[in-house]
Specification:
This protein is of the alpha/beta class. Helix content is 43%, strand content 16%.
Length: 279
Amino acid sequence: MHFADSLIKAARTKSPVCVGLDPDLKKLPEGVTKDPTGVLTFCKGIIDAVKDVACCVKPQMAYFEVLGWEGMKVFWDVCAYAKLQNLLVIADGKRNDIGSTCEAYADAYLHAGSPIDALTVSPYLGSDGIKPFIERCNKNEKGIFILVKTSNASSGELQDLTIGDEAVHEHMAQLVAGWGAGCLGAESHYSSVGAVVGATYPEELKYLRSLMPNTPILIPGYGAQGGTAADIAHGFVNGIGAIVNSARGIIFASKGKDWKEAAQKAAQDMKSELASVIH
C-alpha cells in the first residue's frame, strides 16, 4: 500500500502517536543489561507496550550505530519486530548525499524487502540528494520525511535566515510540496514525501501546514523537549495529516521494573492529550 495511505489509516485506527526508540544505554531501566542484547530486549518491550496505542515507532539510528555491528543488527531486528506487531517503522537517520552514494543510501533503507517504511532525510544538498529517495518511495511504496523546521533551539541559525521575503524553512516547505506533488496516495491524497516540523515552533507549524497541504508532517519535540498538545494542533487538517513523536517521555517513563507498564500508560495519556486538541 502507498506509504501515506498506510500512515493515515494507521493514525486514524489507533492514534497519531509515534514512539521514538532512543535506547540510550545510560538510561536503560532496572533489570535490562547495558549492551546490545539489553537494547533488543528493551526495544521489543517498548514495542509490545505501545503497539495497540501508537501508529508507528521511530528508531533513532545513532543509538544503535554507537554499539557497532552488533548494534546495527539489533536495529534491523527491532525494525522487523515492529513490523510483525503491525507498526509502521520510520528510521531516523537523516541521510543525504549525491550521486551513487545517495543511490546506495536509498537502496539500503528503502528497498522492497526492507522492514523500514520511511526514512528521515536532510535536504541541504538540494534535489540531487532527494530524488533517489523519492524514486524508491514510488517504486517500493516507501516514504521519506524531509527536515524543514527542526525542534532544536539553534535551528533558526540556518532555517530562519531570510531569502527575499521568506525564511529558509518556508522556501524548503515549498520545495518539499513540489517534490511530493506527484507522489499522492489514491486513498488519503497525501504524499509519500513528508516533512519534519518541530512542535516547539507552533506558529511556524501553522504557516508551514498552509504551504504543504498534502504533505504528512512528522512532529518531534513533544513532551520532554517542551512541545504541548496545543502546539501541534495546526499540523493536522480535519484530524489527519500528521504524526507526533515522543521518545523519552514514553520509553523512560519509569526506570524501575514497571517500565513496560509505565510506557504503555504514557503512550495512552499522550493519545488522550492529542485527541483533546485534534478535530
